[in-house]
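Entry 14. Structure prediction run on the chain below.
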Amino acid sequence: MSASPRLRFWRCAIVAAVIASPVDAQVMRGVVRSQTTSRTIERARLTAQDRAGRVVGETTSDDGGRFTLRVQANGQPFMVTVRRIGVEPSTTAEFALAPGDTAEYELSVPERSVVGDTVRVMGMASLNESRYQEAMRRGWKVFSPAEVAKHRDEATHVYDLLRWAGAGSLVIPNRPTECVKSARYIAGERRGERCMVWVVDGYVLGPTPVLNPADTYFMAILTASESAVQFGDKAPWGAIVLYTRMNGDRIHP
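Output returned:
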Protein backbone atom coordinates (compact mmCIF):
# COMPACT_ATOMS: atom_id res chain seq x y z
CA MET A 1 0.00 0.00 0.00
CA SER A 2 1.48 3.34 -1.01
CA ALA A 3 1.74 6.19 1.49
CA SER A 4 -0.15 9.45 1.10
CA PRO A 5 1.83 12.45 -0.22
CA ARG A 6 2.37 13.85 3.29
CA LEU A 7 2.98 10.48 4.91
CA ARG A 8 5.86 9.20 2.86
CA PHE A 9 8.11 6.47 4.19
CA TRP A 10 11.12 4.63 2.86
CA ARG A 11 12.09 1.17 4.06
CA CYS A 12 15.84 1.26 3.44
CA ALA A 13 16.85 -2.30 4.09
CA ILE A 14 16.03 -5.55 5.79
CA VAL A 15 19.19 -6.01 7.82
CA ALA A 16 18.48 -9.42 9.23
CA ALA A 17 16.46 -12.36 8.00
CA VAL A 18 13.23 -13.39 9.65
CA ILE A 19 13.92 -15.80 12.48
CA ALA A 20 11.64 -18.04 14.47
CA SER A 21 10.31 -16.96 17.85
CA PRO A 22 8.30 -18.91 20.42
CA VAL A 23 5.87 -16.04 21.02
CA ASP A 24 2.71 -15.38 19.00
CA ALA A 25 3.36 -11.69 18.40
CA GLN A 26 5.12 -10.43 15.31
CA VAL A 27 8.25 -8.55 16.38
CA MET A 28 10.02 -5.76 14.50
CA ARG A 29 13.41 -4.58 15.69
CA GLY A 30 15.68 -1.99 14.21
CA VAL A 31 16.64 1.67 14.13
CA VAL A 32 14.98 4.91 13.01
CA ARG A 33 17.21 7.26 10.99
CA SER A 34 16.95 10.64 9.34
CA GLN A 35 16.67 10.35 5.59
CA THR A 36 18.57 13.63 5.25
CA THR A 37 21.53 13.16 7.61
CA SER A 38 21.40 9.43 8.49
CA ARG A 39 21.52 10.35 12.18
CA THR A 40 19.46 8.17 14.50
CA ILE A 41 16.11 9.56 15.66
CA GLU A 42 15.61 9.13 19.40
CA ARG A 43 12.22 9.15 21.16
CA ALA A 44 10.26 8.60 17.95
CA ARG A 45 6.80 7.08 18.47
CA LEU A 46 6.05 4.00 16.33
CA THR A 47 2.43 2.86 15.98
CA ALA A 48 1.33 -0.29 14.13
CA GLN A 49 -2.20 -0.43 12.67
CA ASP A 50 -4.04 -3.12 10.74
CA ARG A 51 -6.15 -2.54 7.62
CA ALA A 52 -9.16 -1.65 9.77
CA GLY A 53 -7.19 1.11 11.48
CA ARG A 54 -6.94 -0.70 14.81
CA VAL A 55 -3.76 -0.08 16.81
CA VAL A 56 -2.00 -3.44 17.15
CA GLY A 57 1.30 -2.31 18.64
CA GLU A 58 3.16 0.78 19.92
CA THR A 59 6.67 1.60 21.09
CA THR A 60 9.20 4.43 21.31
CA SER A 61 12.77 4.45 20.00
CA ASP A 62 15.49 4.78 22.65
CA ASP A 63 18.26 7.39 22.89
CA GLY A 64 20.18 5.55 20.16
CA GLY A 65 17.18 5.36 17.81
CA ARG A 66 16.75 1.60 18.42
CA PHE A 67 13.26 0.13 18.81
CA THR A 68 11.47 -3.15 19.46
CA LEU A 69 7.86 -3.22 18.28
CA ARG A 70 5.61 -6.13 19.26
CA VAL A 71 2.59 -6.43 17.00
CA GLN A 72 -0.57 -8.41 17.78
CA ALA A 73 -1.95 -8.65 14.25
CA ASN A 74 -2.52 -12.43 14.15
CA GLY A 75 -0.45 -12.71 10.98
CA GLN A 76 -2.50 -10.08 9.13
CA PRO A 77 -0.81 -7.21 7.22
CA PHE A 78 -0.08 -4.02 9.16
CA MET A 79 1.51 -0.62 8.62
CA VAL A 80 3.77 1.39 10.92
CA THR A 81 3.57 5.16 11.43
CA VAL A 82 6.52 7.13 12.85
CA ARG A 83 5.89 10.43 14.62
CA ARG A 84 8.16 12.87 16.44
CA ILE A 85 8.57 16.62 16.69
CA GLY A 86 11.03 17.59 13.99
CA VAL A 87 10.14 14.58 11.82
CA GLU A 88 7.48 14.51 9.11
CA PRO A 89 4.84 11.91 10.12
CA SER A 90 5.58 8.87 7.97
CA THR A 91 3.69 5.64 7.27
CA THR A 92 5.12 2.47 5.77
CA ALA A 93 3.78 0.15 3.15
CA GLU A 94 2.22 -3.04 4.58
CA PHE A 95 4.31 -5.60 6.43
CA ALA A 96 3.30 -9.26 6.48
CA LEU A 97 4.89 -11.26 9.27
CA ALA A 98 3.60 -14.59 10.52
CA PRO A 99 2.83 -14.96 14.24
CA GLY A 100 6.08 -15.64 16.10
CA ASP A 101 8.27 -14.09 13.40
CA THR A 102 10.98 -11.53 14.21
CA ALA A 103 12.53 -9.25 11.60
CA GLU A 104 14.92 -6.32 11.71
CA TYR A 105 14.50 -3.16 9.65
CA GLU A 106 16.18 0.20 9.23
CA LEU A 107 13.53 2.90 8.87
CA SER A 108 14.43 6.17 7.15
CA VAL A 109 12.15 9.19 7.68
CA PRO A 110 12.20 12.79 6.39
CA GLU A 111 13.49 15.17 9.06
CA ARG A 112 12.27 18.74 9.02
CA SER A 113 11.31 21.48 11.43
CA VAL A 114 7.68 21.77 12.49
CA VAL A 115 6.09 25.19 12.06
CA GLY A 116 3.15 26.11 14.27
CA ASP A 117 1.12 29.31 14.43
CA THR A 118 3.72 31.14 16.53
CA VAL A 119 6.57 28.71 17.24
CA ARG A 120 9.21 26.96 15.13
CA VAL A 121 10.14 23.66 16.73
CA MET A 122 13.55 22.27 15.78
CA GLY A 123 13.80 19.59 18.43
CA MET A 124 13.05 18.75 22.03
CA ALA A 125 15.02 19.98 25.04
CA SER A 126 14.68 18.37 28.43
CA LEU A 127 12.81 20.25 31.14
CA ASN A 128 16.05 21.03 32.96
CA GLU A 129 17.73 22.29 29.80
CA SER A 130 14.81 24.66 29.31
CA ARG A 131 15.10 25.83 32.93
CA TYR A 132 18.82 26.44 32.52
CA GLN A 133 18.28 28.45 29.33
CA GLU A 134 15.56 30.48 31.06
CA ALA A 135 17.84 31.25 34.02
CA MET A 136 20.51 32.49 31.62
CA ARG A 137 17.98 34.68 29.79
CA ARG A 138 16.88 36.22 33.10
CA GLY A 139 20.46 37.22 33.84
CA TRP A 140 20.72 35.29 37.10
CA LYS A 141 24.14 34.34 38.46
CA VAL A 142 24.19 30.74 37.25
CA PHE A 143 26.50 27.84 38.11
CA SER A 144 26.24 25.64 35.03
CA PRO A 145 25.61 21.88 34.93
CA ALA A 146 29.25 21.39 33.88
CA GLU A 147 30.53 23.39 36.87
CA VAL A 148 28.28 21.54 39.30
CA ALA A 149 29.19 18.12 37.87
CA LYS A 150 32.87 18.67 38.73
CA HIS A 151 32.15 18.68 42.47
CA ARG A 152 28.71 17.32 43.27
CA ASP A 153 29.82 13.72 43.89
CA GLU A 154 32.53 14.85 46.31
CA ALA A 155 30.40 17.32 48.25
CA THR A 156 28.94 16.36 51.62
CA HIS A 157 26.49 19.27 51.62
CA VAL A 158 25.12 21.72 49.05
CA TYR A 159 27.00 24.46 50.91
CA ASP A 160 30.18 22.79 49.63
CA LEU A 161 28.98 23.31 46.06
CA LEU A 162 28.50 27.01 46.73
CA ARG A 163 32.03 27.32 48.12
CA TRP A 164 33.64 25.42 45.24
CA ALA A 165 31.66 27.45 42.72
CA GLY A 166 33.17 30.64 44.15
CA ALA A 167 29.96 32.26 45.35
CA GLY A 168 31.75 35.29 46.80
CA SER A 169 28.55 37.31 47.16
CA LEU A 170 27.33 34.95 49.90
CA VAL A 171 28.11 34.32 53.53
CA ILE A 172 28.13 30.51 53.70
CA PRO A 173 27.99 29.01 57.21
CA ASN A 174 30.03 26.03 58.34
CA ARG A 175 27.07 24.42 60.03
CA PRO A 176 24.19 23.19 57.80
CA THR A 177 21.66 24.25 60.46
CA GLU A 178 22.50 27.89 59.76
CA CYS A 179 21.24 29.79 56.74
CA VAL A 180 23.08 31.40 53.83
CA LYS A 181 23.06 35.19 53.77
CA SER A 182 24.05 37.85 51.33
CA ALA A 183 27.49 39.36 51.90
CA ARG A 184 25.83 42.77 51.66
CA TYR A 185 24.42 42.29 55.15
CA ILE A 186 26.89 42.84 57.99
CA ALA A 187 26.97 40.27 60.80
CA GLY A 188 25.64 41.65 64.07
CA GLU A 189 23.20 44.01 62.43
CA ARG A 190 19.52 43.22 62.31
CA ARG A 191 19.70 42.91 58.56
CA GLY A 192 22.14 40.02 59.02
CA GLU A 193 19.27 37.84 60.20
CA ARG A 194 17.68 37.99 56.80
CA CYS A 195 18.25 34.50 55.42
CA MET A 196 18.20 33.58 51.76
CA VAL A 197 15.79 30.77 50.89
CA TRP A 198 16.34 27.66 48.79
CA VAL A 199 14.07 27.04 45.82
CA VAL A 200 14.28 23.44 44.56
CA ASP A 201 12.69 22.44 41.23
CA GLY A 202 10.50 25.54 41.45
CA TYR A 203 9.32 25.01 45.06
CA VAL A 204 10.32 27.37 47.86
CA LEU A 205 11.61 25.13 50.67
CA GLY A 206 13.02 27.59 53.18
CA PRO A 207 16.44 28.70 54.48
CA THR A 208 17.92 25.34 55.64
CA PRO A 209 16.61 22.45 53.51
CA VAL A 210 18.09 18.97 53.59
CA LEU A 211 19.45 18.30 50.09
CA ASN A 212 21.71 15.70 48.50
CA PRO A 213 24.42 17.55 46.54
CA ALA A 214 24.79 14.57 44.17
CA ASP A 215 21.24 15.24 42.92
CA THR A 216 22.08 18.78 41.77
CA TYR A 217 21.83 19.66 38.06
CA PHE A 218 22.52 23.41 38.20
CA MET A 219 22.21 26.31 40.65
CA ALA A 220 21.53 30.03 40.40
CA ILE A 221 21.81 32.88 42.92
CA LEU A 222 19.11 35.56 42.95
CA THR A 223 19.50 38.94 44.60
CA ALA A 224 16.80 40.20 46.95
CA SER A 225 15.15 42.21 44.18
CA GLU A 226 15.27 39.29 41.72
CA SER A 227 13.87 36.80 44.23
CA ALA A 228 11.12 39.19 45.36
CA VAL A 229 10.00 39.58 41.75
CA GLN A 230 10.18 35.85 41.06
CA PHE A 231 8.81 34.40 44.32
CA GLY A 232 7.18 37.32 46.14
CA ASP A 233 7.17 37.48 49.93
CA LYS A 234 8.32 33.84 50.15
CA ALA A 235 11.84 34.92 49.22
CA PRO A 236 12.29 38.63 50.06
CA TRP A 237 16.04 38.54 50.91
CA GLY A 238 17.46 36.57 48.03
CA ALA A 239 17.26 32.96 46.87
CA ILE A 240 19.41 30.04 45.85
CA VAL A 241 17.62 28.27 43.01
CA LEU A 242 18.59 24.62 42.56
CA TYR A 243 17.29 22.18 39.99
CA THR A 244 17.78 18.46 40.52
CA ARG A 245 18.76 15.83 37.96
CA MET A 246 15.28 14.29 38.09
CA ASN A 247 14.12 16.13 34.96
CA GLY A 248 17.19 15.77 32.75
CA ASP A 249 20.94 15.40 33.15
CA ARG A 250 22.53 16.50 29.89
CA ILE A 251 25.55 18.72 30.54
CA HIS A 252 25.92 21.79 28.36
CA PRO A 253 28.46 24.30 29.72
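Residues 46 and 82 are 5 Å apart (CA to CA).
Filed with the rest of this week's runs.
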